[in-house]
């Protein structure tokens, strides 16, 4: 049962509206009770004047929350974390992290809270977590807040990722707080409510290791096994099996990112999950022109997190996880290192398999090894011809149906495309299958910026239009042509900022 009065903060809900009676919402505290060393009990900050900006009704349904109730005053107070069900124990989670290669022993939720765990439709526990809910003991110099624009960026991009079939933490809702947030200028503040398989990060293991408590490390690993890799529990070496599970989940995830041109932008070890879900949509963006050297984040000066580096960085991060887990892998450190090295080598193999399978499917030749050289050559053509990745694959499906004009136009700057096209068409690619895996609508950078700028100014129309387009990414819809088009020339070089 939720505490709190019948305050009606939600947009469109007046005080006089009938409020759906309190629900029996159950928030478990599995993390807080099993791993008390990794959480500090904390409370979310009261809003100045709350206004619900967006709710993902699919996510709400997945965790058994009634979207209509979430829009009521009591629902919004749950989404802000200011009223939680009796028995819930919100905590700020502790974690460490390598940020741009430099180790910070104590990061943690500086502006976030784990409210507790909900139960998903399939019986799995899912975290309900907030971002922007005020300073915590981990805030260091930060203000504990988040601005409307970046929280809505997470909302729209994570939603697009889910629609693309890419494992991701999910945005349940964004609530404006009525509080001004100082970044370069004053911006409206917001809280993001997020649902995820968990918020265990590589950095969580680094933290447990850094305080040199092997018993805690083991409890953390057991918690991770129970929630994410339950089959590991039955294996002879459960912790090695856990590490293998994480390596495989991340290899599959990064391949999926690469296949749609997603650039995460801040792949620090605190932004990599144990579940294999994408987390932290800070400076992320999507490629338009295909170029592995692409970097969008303004603070990534060395290009560490460039598009093409993502698999290497993922493996580097997993090596940090393996280091943290060494005491669990073998009592003899040298032997533990050998076990870890073996498992880490599995990344390359798993990534290559996931990537080739995905690229074959994108080429309309699922399962066909013969398509592999054509896939490699196509990447070169995309790059030399400066072709928009997303439009490129959709144009190829047209070509597979007999209309080669759009592909010829797009690849006009790529020497060798004609010969490539002839060879590929000779394999009789399946155009319909291509259209089921190659999205037409992605959250293109210029559209995201346009929607966030409008929302920051109070107009949510463009955001909802964009969400509608990217939520059904494969099916062409009349009237949505601009959502399928690359950025206009005058949009210029795109830069994203970490000042979230
Ligand atoms: N405004 C802020 N106030 C306090 N701490 C902050 C603030 N912004 C970021 N931090 C902290 O800095 C670290 C790195 O932030 P980062 O942007 O990677 O994560 P985040 O966006 O806050 O959250 P998440 O990774 O959960 O999506 C985290 O420990 C985060 O809590
Ligand atoms: Mg983060």
TrEMBL record:
Name of the coding gene: ydiU
Transmembrane segments: none
Organism this protein belongs to: Dactylosporangium matsuzakiense
Function summary: Nucleotidyltransferase involved in the post-translational modification of proteins. It can catalyze the addition of adenosine monophosphate (AMP) or uridine monophosphate (UMP) to a protein, resulting in modifications known as AMPylation and UMPylation.
Keyword Cell membrane in record: no
Pfam family membership, one: SelO
Residues holding ATP: 108, 110-111, 131, 143-144, 194, 201, 280
Record: active site: 270 (proton acceptor)
Family membership: Belongs to the SELO family.
Protein name: Protein nucleotidyltransferase YdiU
Positions of Mg(2+) binding: 271, 280
InterPro entries given in the database record: SelO
Cofactors required: Mg(2+); Mn(2+)
Protein's UniProt keywords contain Metal-binding: yes
GO molecular function: AMPylase activity; ATP binding; magnesium ion binding; manganese ion binding
Keywords: ATP-binding, Magnesium, Manganese, Metal-binding, Nucleotide-binding, Nucleotidyltransferase, Transferase
Record EC number: 2.7.7.-, 2.7.7.108
Catalytic activity reported: L-threonyl-[protein] + ATP = 3-O-(5'-adenylyl)-L-threonyl-[protein] + diphosphate; L-seryl-[protein] + ATP = 3-O-(5'-adenylyl)-L-seryl-[protein] + diphosphate; L-histidyl-[protein] + UTP = N(tele)-(5'-uridylyl)-L-histidyl-[protein] + diphosphate; L-tyrosyl-[protein] + UTP = O-(5'-uridylyl)-L-tyrosyl-[protein] + diphosphate
Coiled coil: none
